[in-house]
Design brief:
Helix content is 62%, strand content 3%. The protein has a two-stranded antiparallel ribbon. The chain is mainly alpha-helical and 307 residues long. It is globular. The chain contains 15 helices and 2 strands. Helix 3 crosses helix 15 and helix 7 packs antiparallel against helix 10. The protein has a domain of 171 residues: MetI-like (MetI-like fold, Orthogonal Bundle), CATH 1.10.3720. The longest helix is centred in the last third of the chain and has 33 residues.
Length: 307
């Protein structure tokens, strides 16, 4: 954007840091879209604080008129009555998610650098295999995945939450695109100066591809934080299961902690409030991570054309 002021042209920029009157037309278009897309988030937040009678009302209300913390109290009380407390499931999910994000970023950026800036046999074939992996949904490879995990001895092992999720084909594809655009001359100059590949990757490449890495971090976080596969298929020990799995057990096993079950049709109805509270707990980390990294994610999308 440009604006003439006293015979001078002032460059505002594509994404100015300060508000400018020329941006008003964008707000007119964007504010209704933002409001519509924010409705599910508003619903999740208010749903967690609704009393049971408002949870059952039809049509459902977005904003509660009588907010309460009873759903969270019931959630804590339900966990206290079990052999494995809710905090254990939450701890498992936090640790496994942090490990998945850290190792996925390390593996993805090293593999992308090798596929982009190094020359070796079968380079194109390996990248083609990665592209082919993008076409497979998890259910299509469930049986071979189980066989591999069984052969590796990961059944009833905490690492089964981590190892199967470390391969992220879409992350490799995305980071490679960014590294491809990085000038080869800069990499060659660093090699002439005696820099190793690890030094080039750490000091030259990574600082220039942080938008792509932020996107990969979000994808890895969501794939691990919301994962149910390991807890359902590979783990029998209840103490090793994830918080997302614990959420699926709330309706069936939620008995009423405050004596309301006798007034309801059963545990399924009484567990709706507990599920709403747990859903908010599951959602908040995703929201916080995206808010922190959203500017870098937008840069990634505009660069790669991903939607």
């Amino acid at each position: 954007m440009r604006r003439r002021n006293r015979n001078k042209i002032r460059i505002i920029g594509i994404n100015p840091r300060r508000f400018d009157r020329s941006q008003i037309k964008f707000y007119i278009y964007l504010l209704p879209v933002v409001f519509i897309t924010a409705l599910p988030i508003i619903f999740i937040f208010f749903n967690a604080f609704k009393p049971l009678d408002e949870l059952l009302v039809y049509p459902p209300k977005f904003i509660t008129t009588r907010p309460t913390l009873q759903n969270f109290r019931n959630l804590i009380a339900t966990s206290a009555n079990k052999a494995i407390p809710m905090s254990r499931y939450l701890f498992n999910s936090l640790i496994s998610t942090l490990l998945v994000v850290a190792f996925t970023l390390a593996i993805t950026v090293m593999a992308a650098y090798c596929m982009s800036k190094r020359k070796y046999r079968l380079k194109n074939a390996l990248f083609g295999i990665n592209e082919a992996a993008l076409m497979f949904v998890p259910v299509a490879v469930a049986i071979p995945r189980y066989i591999i995990i069984y052969k590796m001895g990961l059944i009833d092992n905490f690492l089964v939450h981590v190892i199967p999720l470390l391969a992220l084909p879409v992350g490799l594809y995305l980071v490679k695109q960014f590294i491809d655009d990085f000038p080869d001359s800069v990499v060659e100059a660093a090699r002439i100066d005696g820099a190793s590949d690890y030094y080039i990757l750490r000091k030259v490449i990574i600082p220039n591809i942080t938008p792509a890495l932020a996107t990969v971090a979000i994808l890895a976080f969501q794939s691990s934080w919301n994962s149910l596969e390991a807890s359902y298929y590979y783990i029998n020990n209840e103490a090793l299961k994830s918080f997302s799995f614990y959420m699926t057990t709330l309706t069936a096993n939620s008995g009423n902690a405050n004596g309301m079950v006798g007034q309801m049709t059963g545990n399924t109805v009484a567990g709706l409030g507990i599920q709403a509270a747990a859903a908010l707990i599951m959602f908040i980390p995703n929201l916080i991570l995206f808010v922190i990294l959203q500017s870098r994610v937008m840069n990634t999308m505009s660069h790669s054309g991903m939607k």
